[in-house]
Amino acid sequence: MSTEALARLGELGEELGARPPATFADLAAEQLAVLSDALRRERESRAAGLNEAAEKALTVVPAPARGPVRRILFRPATGPSARPAARRPDRTSGGVRP
């Protein structure tokens, strides 16, 4: 397998989010590039469609509340809210619940 084909296989793996099937190693670099580009375009198209649908759904929310609702629903999963809930003591045995 050529260096270019290996690079394209790596790009395809990134687009898939997983290691490509072993049979993909038999494909030419050009074929791998076509697959990778098609996956990237499809992902972008779906993301755009989801964003459109989310914005359309927000039209039922009163205008003054749209900004806060948008921030609450579509904020990235980082910060304190992304952490797992703290464990509470088990009241029956005095230990910590699993």
Total number of beta strands: 0
Shape: elongated
Give the strand content.
under 5%
Alpha-carbon Rg, integer:
23 Å
Based on secondary structure, the structural category is: mainly alpha
Mean pLDDT: 80
Number of helices: 3
Distance between the terminal alpha carbons, to the nearest Å? 49 Å
Largest sheet: none
Order of helices and strands: HHH
Unreliable stretches (pLDDT < 50, length at least 5) are: none
The level of helicity is 55-70%
Helix-strand blueprint:
Elements (H helix, E strand, L loop, with lengths): L2 H14 L12 H29 L5 H12 L24
Q: What features would you describe in this structure?
A:
With 98 residues, this protein is mainly α. Helices cover 56% and strands 0% of the residues. It contains three helices and no strands. The chain has helices at residues 3-16, 29-57, 63-74. Helix 1 (3-16) runs parallel beside helix 2 (29-57). The longest helix is centred in the middle third of the chain and has 29 residues, at 29-57. The N and C termini lie far apart (49 Å). The mean pLDDT is 80.
Characteristic terms for this protein:
98 residues, single chain, 3 helices, mainly alpha, 56% helix
Characterize this entry briefly:
The chain has 98 residues and is mainly alpha-helical.
